[in-house]
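User: I'm preparing a small set of examples for a lab meeting where we compare how different chains pack in three dimensions. I only have the primary sequence for this one, and I'd like the structure in token form so I can line it up with the others. Please keep the answer compact; I'll paste it straight into my notes.
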Amino acid sequence: MALNVTRRAHLTNEQLYQDLSKVTEKIQQRRMRIAGHCIRHSEEPVCQLVLWQSVEGRISKGRKWLTYVENLLQDSGMANIDKLRACIGDCVNTYMHACMYVVPDWI
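Assistant: Understood. Below is the structure token output for the 107-residue chain.
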């Protein structure tokens, strides 16, 4: 018996897992939360490293790898890093809303 449902109930996966949140949503929320914690602690070295972007290197074939910063921008729906940094630093309520409730279209 899993999730208090027996095999005799004959539930579909959609019926069984409808109340659980998607794994991708949880990953987004946790990624946004850790970035917020790191950026708000300006005395720590990680504050400068979280939104750091390297422009060196060569472009490899195939699909481009997403960096941590690009993932944060996609998760939050922000246009650039400066807007994301301002959102995190200035208004914690707006940032928490972005962490908890904004889900991009590509999911």
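A couple of notes for your slides: The CA atoms of residues 85 and 92 lie 11 Å apart. Confidence is low (pLDDT under 50) at residues 103-107.

User: Perfect, thanks.
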